[in-house]
From TrEMBL:
Species of origin: Actinomycetospora endophytica
Pfam families: ABC_tran
GO molecular function: ATP binding
Keywords annotated in UniProt: ATP-binding, Nucleotide-binding, Transport
PROSITE patterns hit by this protein: ABC_TRANSPORTER_1, ABC_TRANSPORTER_2
Name of the protein described by the UniProt record: ATP-binding cassette domain-containing protein
InterPro entries cross-referenced by the UniProt entry: AAA+_ATPase, ABC_transporter-like_ATP-bd, ABC_transporter-like_CS, P-loop_NTPase
Residue stretches making up the ABC transporter domain: 26-263
Length: 273
């Protein structure tokens, strides 16, 4: 599939192959969230993230995708509804249990969220130094393994402000993986990348997932990236889950807003508001 492929063409995507029988690692159940007395950003959203699958969440800007991700990782508490991680309600457990659970998550934010005062090696080593009792030589072995996987061996001593946006994302990816997380979440991993680097990052996501397994949640506006990496796609719109299914199902959706979003058509229910 070329980068400028016809998005309306069907049959691409991972299509949930091989993961249909798994249970949900994450269950978002009837979650409602509003801020400061405003209308709900999430209005009774229910969706599961299948264990071992890559699920992508799409939707127009400002529709609550990042808010949903923050609920999954426990950074936001729902006004109503439940977040269940491996069957346990995140807000029924103690603060300490939630803290322990968070170690099973890897998070990749848009800019890699690297510490500006540390070089790339120390950034990737940081979670191991903070959360484990591994020796420096054990840490080095693990860190170098992931740094090689993301192709940053030549940039170990560089500071985050000395490397490109794509390299920052790869460093953030290595840091997200270093604790061997069972759930990995990517908030717009492709933002600011050109089409070739977006494609390379997608390949890296697929390769890493294949190698290490895990449940991935990806938030993106990039149609090509969504089609390439996803087993399942959910679409958020006006506080609700407008559609959810395998990649093929959602790209074939007869929900007008979903068709418009995935074909990037100017005409349809979506406007500039
Ligand atoms: N902590 C907060 N306090 C108040 N409002 C918030 C907070 N977090 C998010 N919002 C609001 O919730 C709405 C959804 O935001 P969110 O960042 O989840 O959208 P998004 O779908 O990820 O958008 P984009 O695709 O543009 O990144 C926005 O109107 C935003 O202003």
């Amino acid at each position: 599939m070329s980068i400028n492929s016809d998005y309306s063409q069907q049959g691409a995507g991972r299509g949930g192959v091989g993961v249909e029988e798994t249970s949900n690692a994450v269950e978002i159940v009837e979650v409602t969230k509003a801020f400061g007395g405003g209308p709900p950003v999430l209005d009774g959203v229910s969706v599961g993230l299948r264990e071992g699958a890559i699920t992508t969440m799409m939707g127009p800007s400002g529709t609550g995708k990042s808010v949903l991700l923050k609920h999954v990782v426990g950074l936001l508490e729902p006004d109503d509804g439940e977040i269940r991680i491996f069957g346990d309600d995140l807000w029924e457990m103690t603060e300490e249990q939630r803290f322990e659970l968070r170690k099973r998550f890897g998070l990749l934010f848009q800019d890699g969220a690297l510490f500006g005062s540390m070089n790339i090696y120390d950034n990737v080593a940081f979670p191991l130094r903070k959360h484990t009792r591994m020796s420096e030589s054990e840490i080095r072995e693990v860190v170098m393994g992931y740094i090689q996987e993301v192709g940053l061996e030549h940039a170990l001593d560089r500071a985050p402000n000395e490397i490109s946006g794509g390299m920052k994302k790869r460093a953030g990816f290595a840091r997200a993986l270093v604790m061997k997380p069972e759930i990995v979440m990517f908030d717009e991993p492709d933002s600011g990348l050109d089409p070739v680097r977006t494609r390379l990052l997608c390949e890296l996501i697929l390769k890493t997932h294949q190698e290490h397994g895990g449940t991935y949640l990806v938030i993106t506006h990039n149609i090509d990236a969504a089609q390439t990496v996803s087993d399942y796609i959910g679409v958020l719109y006006q506080g609700k889950l407008a559609d959810y299914g395998t990649t093929d199902d959602v790209f074939n959706s007869d929900v007008p807003m979903v068709g418009q979003l995935l074909r990037a058509e100017p005409d349809g229910p979506l406007g500039m508001e």
